[in-house]
Specification:
Elements (H helix, E strand, L loop, with lengths): L1 H34 L7 H22 L15 H32 L13 H4 L1 H33 L1
Helix pairs in contact: 1-2, 2-5, 3-5
GO cellular component, one term: plasma membrane
Keywords: Cell inner membrane, Cell membrane, Membrane, Transmembrane, Transmembrane helix, Transport
Organism: Halalkalibacter oceani
């Protein structure tokens, strides 16, 4: 499972960097052409499409590195067992929300598959598919985190039993 996770992380990070470079290049290209009197009509929609993918891929990277905003001022004052229980509950709620978003994001993508992006000959589902794909990646990240936590817990328990 570790190899799979490393492979996913590698692809995700490279793709996010590539998309960010593409957005910056596209916006620069569009600004130069607009300044020259030749506005590029499709550049805004393409930048939005790329940006939504960056957001969802970046959200997964933030989840993996525990960089999402959290309010821990209350949980820091709780006993360790209660803190762990709250963390597990929060992870379960996040997991349930991600499953909800995967399902409805997929439905949303199907619903908009025949709609095209205004100035591009692309289906609107290229934008909306970022929701189920990004949330699926976040759910996988959560599962990997749970797996590591359970494995570490098991190893600690085995270490105590050996004493």
């Amino acid at each position: 499972m570790l190899k799979v996770q490393k492979y996913i992380i590698l692809i995700e990070e490279k793709l996010t960097k590539l998309l960010l470079i593409a957005v910056v290049g596209l916006v620069f290209f569009a600004a130069v052409f607009r300044w020259g009197g030749f506005p590029v009509a499709w550049s805004v929609e393409m930048a939005q499409l790329l940006f939504i993918w960056i957001i969802f891929l970046g959200a997964n990277q933030a989840l993996r590195n525990n960089r999402h905003i959290g309010v821990n001022i209350l949980t820091e004052k709780l006993p360790e067992k209660v803190r762990i229980a709250v963390a597990v509950l929060m992870d379960l709620l996040v997991g349930a929300f991600l499953i909800f978003m995967i399902y409805y994001g997929f439905q949303h993508s199907l619903h908009h598959s025949l709609r095209s992006i205004q100035n591009l000959p692309l289906s609107y589902s290229y934008i909306t598919t970022a929701i189920p794909v990004g949330c699926s990646l976040m759910l996988l990240t959560l599962i990997f985190k749970w797996s590591r936590a359970l494995s570490a817990q098991r190893n600690r328990k085995v270490g105590r039993d050996d004493e």
